Amino acid sequence: MQKKLSVKVCGLLLGLCLTVGVGAGTVHAEGVDNRKLQNGSFEEEQDWTDYYKQPNQSAVPGWNTTDTNGAIELFRENSGKYIGGVTLSPAKGDYAAELNAQQESTLYQYVTTTPFSVYEWGLDHGARNGTDTMALVIGPKQTVNPSKPNSNGRDQLMQMVDWLIEQGKTSVKTSAGLGEQLTVYSKKFDIKGTFKDNAGNNAFSLTPSSVYTEEWQIWIMADSRATSGTNPWGSYGSNAEGSAGSTGASGNTEVELYPQQIHRKSTGVAKVRRQVMFLPLNQRIQVIATGWDCL
């Protein structure tokens, strides 16, 4: 089990209702059909009883990862295993996901959305290393899945948040709560973490154009871990209970600063496939790691 970093990123290629857990980042989400996030609590097809496991993504219905080995780390309630002297319990159900398994990576899934519809998201996120920052990314499904050039490389979503940090639009957080809501435009994805028609290595923009055609909505949030007792979850979006968030969770008071709804337009298509991604953000400057239910 690799030591986890402080900031994670989650991705969705879209239409969702999410719930996230703890660790280097943990996520829990709910869904009942292909217009919603599937297997949000990571319960499906899991019946093991150890405190953690790293199954291949093929054994975790609904979810994919940019980990080059295809590993997704799941965990059960445990005391002192993930966080010394602290009990870590999934926000809902028996299982939750660590944002990073064997390497920095993004946890994501595809969701079918209906044009001219409104979708809400909700998630629970917990910290493992002091104050941990994560990003929720929602945007259009690409013809090429997000990927990394190698085990130590950066996938397209991680590069996206790296770029926002370089532009001074966001940062690794030192205090808990909901941070920036940002919109980024990119070129289309290509293989091995690259972008199409990107010889100049300028894949991102803050404004759309005929070159930057892919629109991504990004939310930055952070939570702080406990030093004793039970580790808290921060609840965001539709998971927060009122403006102050859920009882006992950290980082919820700002949840109503931004509308938690995604409006999508279409050009004559019946349904649109979109992607949801969760990324952990590393404490190192300009480095983002990814993950969900998420420690």
Helix content: under 10%
Note the run of SSEs as H and E. EEEEEEEEEEEEEHEEEEEEE
Major sheet characteristics: 8 strands, mixed
Could you tell me the radius of gyration in angstroms?
Answer: 17 Å
Helix/strand class: mainly beta
What count of domains describes the coordinates?
Answer: 1
Low-confidence stretches: 1-7, 13-32, 243-272, 282-295
Shape: globular
Summarize model confidence as the mean pLDDT.
75
Distance between the termini: 13 Å
Number of helices, counting only DSSP H or I runs of 4 residues or more: 1
3D structure, described in words:
With 295 residues, this protein is mostly beta strands. It has one domain. Helix content is 4%, strand content 32%. Strands 1, 5, 10, 13, 14, 15, 16 and 20 form an eight-stranded mixed sheet that branches. A three-stranded antiparallel sheet has the order 4-6-9, with no helix packed on it. A three-stranded mixed sheet has the order 7-8-17, with no helix packed on it. The longest helix is centred in the middle third of the chain and has 11 residues, at 156-166.
Features:
295 residues; mainly beta; 8-stranded mixed β-sheet; 3-stranded antiparallel β-sheet; 20 strands; disordered C terminus
